[in-house]
Amino acid sequence: MSLREVIKREPDMLVCGEAEDREQALQLVENTNPHLVIVDLTLKTSNGMDLIKDLRSRYPKVQILVLSMHDETLHAERAIRAGARGYITKQEATKKIMVAIRQVLNGDIYWSEKAAARVASKIARASKSTTASSVDLLADRELQVFELIGAGQSTRQIAAALHIDVSTVETYRARIKDKLNLEDSLALLQFAIRWHIANSHGVE
């Protein structure tokens, strides 16, 4: 059963519409004024994290729930920081999507026990050390570039995928190398590929 059908079965809920990319989603929110938007991090022509930030900036009263195949151990906390109020993986959505939707609509944050435990552990570690894991040092756009490098994308392909200039991608690559203390482009490529393989089980 599709997500639309699951929600439509609830007597007090209505699906306002569906969108495949960022601009279409923003226009739909403008036209329908929904209480909640469910965002996938992988959109047709854009990135869901950018959409979350746009929604939070333009429509601060709209609640945002992320539903994605992406590994929550890396993306859940970032999504919350960007403005989402909940994060649920597609693996657990069948059983828990309505719980997540209602919890977010009630003004609470929803994420799995696994993600909550990770954040609690991170806070505990922060009290002992200010050193973050290397990839956590990357800003959202830097992480997007890093992920695409690991997936084998060229600089031009990354620029096209993110709708930015090739020179901008090169700037991000330089920042990533600096933050991760990598010596050169080859070291960056090797590290990104190893990271991608280790985390690809949770990526669409």
Question: Would you give an account of this structure?
Answer:
The protein is mainly α and 204 residues long. The chain folds into 2 domains: 3-124, Rossmann fold, CATH 3.40.50; 135-202, Arc Repressor Mutant, subunit A. The protein has helices at 3-8, 22-32, 48-58, 72-82, 90-105, 113-126, 140-150, 155-162, 166-179, 185-199; strands spanning 36-39, 63-68, 86-89. Strands 1-2-3 form a 3-stranded parallel β-sheet, with helices on both faces. The model is unreliable at 127-132 (pLDDT under 50).
Taken together, the total number of domains comes to 2
Q: In one word, what is the shape?
A: globular
Provide the CATH topology of the largest domain.
Rossmann fold
What is the CATH homology-level superfamily of the largest domain? Response regulator
CATH architecture of the largest domain: 3-Layer(aba) Sandwich
Distance linking N and C termini: 20 Å
Radius of gyration equals: 18 Å
Chain-averaged pLDDT: 85
Class of the largest domain, according to the CATH hierarchy?
Answer: Alpha Beta
Q: Care to count the β-strands?
A: 3
Provide the low-confidence segments as ranges: 127-132
* Class derived from helix and strand content: mainly alpha
How do the SSEs run, as a string of H and E? HHEHEHEHHHHHH
For the sheet with most strands, the description reads: 3 strands, parallel
Compute the number of helices: 10
- Beta-strand content: 5-15%
- Walk across the major sheet and give the strand order: 1-2-3
Helix content: 55-70%
Please give the oligomerization state of what you see: single chain
